[in-house]
Amino acid sequence: MKITIQAFGKIEEIIGDSDCTLNSGDTVKALYNQLAIQFPALANMMYAVAINNKIANPSSEIKEGDSIALLPPFSGG
After folding, report:
1. Domain boundaries in the chain?
2. In angstroms, rounded to a whole number, what is the distance separating the alpha carbons of residues 57 and 9?
3. Disulfide: which of 12, 20, 30, 36 matches 43 by Cβ 3.0-4.6 Å?
4. Domain with residues 2-71, CATH architecture
């Protein structure tokens, strides 16, 4: 399944663009694995995945047409 993701912050720098289309499995865990293969710098980075504006967990399902965002750690101050 092809999905389009939006990346922010440091993740955008690693991917090289704010938008990226890639082939992925149907769960967030599969997405993490695919991103680690395609962008090795993400393999050890902590970041969250949001599906349709809601933070997802590794077992969350991704469906074609979902809005996917990769969110770096947030800090306050």
Report:
1. 2-71
2. 20
3. 36
4. Roll (3.10)
HEC per residue, the chain: CEEEEEECHHHHHHHCCCEEEEECCCEHHHHHHHHHHHCHHHCCCCCEEEECCEECCCCCECCCCCCEEEECCCCCC
pLDDT one-digit tens code per residue, 6-60: 999 999 999 998 888 888 789 999 999 999 999 999 999 999 999 999 999 999 9
Rounded to an integer, what distance in angstroms lies between the CA atom of residue 38 and that of residue 74?
Answer: 24
Which pTM was predicted? 0.87
